[in-house]
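Customer escalation, tier 2.

The customer says the design service returned an amino acid string that "doesn't look like it belongs to this structure." They asked us to rerun it and document both sides in this ticket. The original structure tokens are below, unchanged.
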């Protein structure tokens, strides 16, 4: 059974990181989870920061995200919110959803908002996306290389390469991107071709 991980809004916001995180779920390396509230936060930030993005396209992205992975949405966790304590009360819904979903890990960029002494008693740990993807790459380097190739192919440009995907991933996960790039260039097989 794959590791259950809850993705926070800030790791779903960057498009390349979001694509990689969803694809590691599709590859069954992990069982991703999120909530409608997490998606609300993510899409609100996208609409505010990127008014150039088409609203219908954003709505379609949300639909595709929810349809992409079986049992991805966490529901019915509201009663747990009051039971958890975090430095920022606005983050309690994330931990409550993780507990309710039986998640082992919360993947977030805001590590300080989820101190170990507040999350560990619930059997949950917290990982930065760079650490999370580095750990996945250590166990599944071929799959991570294949994901880079698949994303490059999905970009639809004849000239798109896995290295370009890795360049974009490096903005949010530089350590993992470096390892994947090194693995890509020393790997063998069709997914390592650039």
């Amino acid at each position: 059974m794959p590791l259950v991980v809850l993705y926070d809004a800030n790791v779903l916001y960057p498009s390349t990181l979001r694509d990689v995180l969803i694809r590691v779920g599709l590859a069954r390396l992990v069982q991703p989870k999120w909530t409608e509230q997490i998606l609300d936060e993510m899409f609100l930030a996208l609409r505010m920061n990127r008014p150039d993005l088409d609203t219908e396209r954003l709505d379609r992205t949300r639909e595709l995200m929810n349809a992409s992975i079986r049992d991805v949405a966490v529901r019915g966790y509201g009663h747990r919110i009051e039971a958890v304590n975090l430095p920022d009360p606005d983050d309690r819904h994330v931990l409550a959803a993780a507990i309710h979903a039986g998640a082992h890990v919360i993947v977030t960029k805001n590590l300080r908002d989820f101190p170990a002494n507040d999350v560990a008693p619930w059997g949950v740990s917290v990982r930065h996306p760079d650490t999370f993807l580095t750990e996945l790459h250590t166990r599944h380097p071929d799959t991570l290389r294949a994901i880079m190739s698949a994303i490059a192919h999905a970009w639809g440009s004849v000239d798109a390469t896995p290295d370009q995907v890795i360049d974009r991933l490096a903005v949010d996960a530089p350590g993992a991107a470096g390892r994947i790039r090194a693995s890509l260039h020393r790997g063998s097989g069709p997914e390592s071709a650039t």
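Tier 2 assessment: The sequence is consistent with the input. Residues 107 and 129 are 6 Å apart (CA to CA). The two ends are 33 Å apart (CA to CA). Sent an explanation to the customer and offered a walkthrough call.
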